[in-house]
TrEMBL record:
Regions annotated as coiled coil: none
Pfam families: Cupin_8, F-box-like
Family under the similarity heading: Belongs to the JARID1 histone demethylase family.
SMART domains linked: FBOX (SM00256), JmjC (SM00558)
Top-level taxon: Eukaryota
JmjC domain boundaries: 282-442
All copies of domain F-box, residue ranges: 83-129
Molecular function in Gene Ontology: cis-regulatory region sequence-specific DNA binding; metal ion binding; oxidoreductase activity
Encoding gene (name): LOC100782241
Cellular compartment(s): Nucleus
Listed PROSITE patterns: FBOX, JMJC
Protein name in the entry: JmjC domain-containing protein
A cellular-component GO term for this protein: nucleus
Cofactor: Fe(2+)
Amino acid sequence: MRSFRMRNLLSRVKKKTIKNRNRSCISITKELAHLVEQEEEEEEVNEEGFNIKSSAPSHTHGVQPLGNLYLNTSSTNSRDTGLGNLHTLSDELVLDILGFLDSTSLGVLASVSKSFYVFTNHEPLWRNLVLENLLGGFQYKGSWKSTYVSACYPSFDNFAVALGGFKVRDFYSDYLFQSWLCANLEMKPEWLERDNVVRKRGISVEEFVLNFEEPNKPVLLEGCIDNWGALRNWDRDYLVRLCGDVKFSVGPVEMKLGEYFGYSDQVREERPLYLFDPKFAEKVPKLGDEYEVPVYFREDLFGVLGNERPDYRWVIIGPAGSGSSFHVDPNSTSAWNAVIKGSKKWILFPPDVIPPGVHPSPDGADVASPVSIIEWFMNFYGATKNWNKKPIECVCKAGEVIFVPSGWWHLVINLEESIAITQNYVSRRNLINVLDFLKSPNASTLVSGTRDRLNLYDKFKNAIEAYFPGEIDELTRKEEERKIQQRKLSFWDSVADTNAGAFKFSF
């Protein structure tokens, strides 16, 4: 199969990377053509290349990367002939247009040509139809199209499955192939080996505040949740039995835990749905009883708002490959994340360093980034090797807690099925930053986790002044002194460190 040919090319050709969805998946020159002829005879794999998961199927419809067309000079791209005059449109634009169609229209259009058959069966189109129309009331059937047909047209269930696997010859598309590739790519060892986070066990609260919270520096804490009931009890069987028919937030829909695990067992897609629920302890109080906030994070000043505080705690469950692309935590809060089952790869950049490939809007309201986490690793992770100041990285395992300081960019990917709890909080160390954020001119756009975005600043400030008279004025004075001292140090650094790199950490 040519998809497997691409696998071997990717795994054997050193220093070749997938650039983006509008360019060739890999630049293949004539001198590399002999690799294709040898691929079935040679099993040796270059460890510096990309590896496909051993369980990965070939692309459902036989889509091949555009590079294969250049090696097959006798072939024409059926993608272009089947689209007719629309062939000049990019694949992404074609799919955007198809996204406006309902299921019946997609089904009819699939019969027009082989090319339209491939495009109209693109899984994300059917995923959107399922999530928008079935609202979580579905049983995943191995593909999103089969799931939709099974729920809406039960009598056609088996027929739809049979139609879902037609192979189309000589169809070349980097955009469609990369979606499959990102869903089936192994994490490269070099993406996991860097571990430069500070790790601490048994430190005092005072040491944590002095060395990490005040200087706004990440740290991985070991041994501070060993007494959690969740660490002992939270496996699949226990959670499904405990939660029963309770539904949890999974992307834009609500699902029972049993339904979600049924989905996560079967799914193989670029961006798996992530269970991320801020009301888990209210929905199932025992879940809230089986963990407690680690001692380092118990000063949480948003608590003065009582039930009016913004969303602040979440249970997080997801399969391998799920996670969160680069973002900064809401409302200028700091956060902690405790892994209960599984493991997570973390990459963190300080507030003044925007991660490569990430493009926030000037006001920070929107962030443009690669479609998937794997795509970021493929295209941008390597760039960080040459930076004088590397990002903070680690793998956080069950029983470990990572502290994410206010304003830090971070990406997280589950390396296996994982369960975690995370909370955002406000302490005296970042209270002034949070207040400044809440009163920003575009607070109605930036503030999250509450319906009352415009009034949150006044409510929070008044409550703090009532509970802690004079505290805001004192912290404001200290913050001004800190900024003055920081400006002095920055000036000295600028004249003394002539070899400074382009990026600086803020601690």
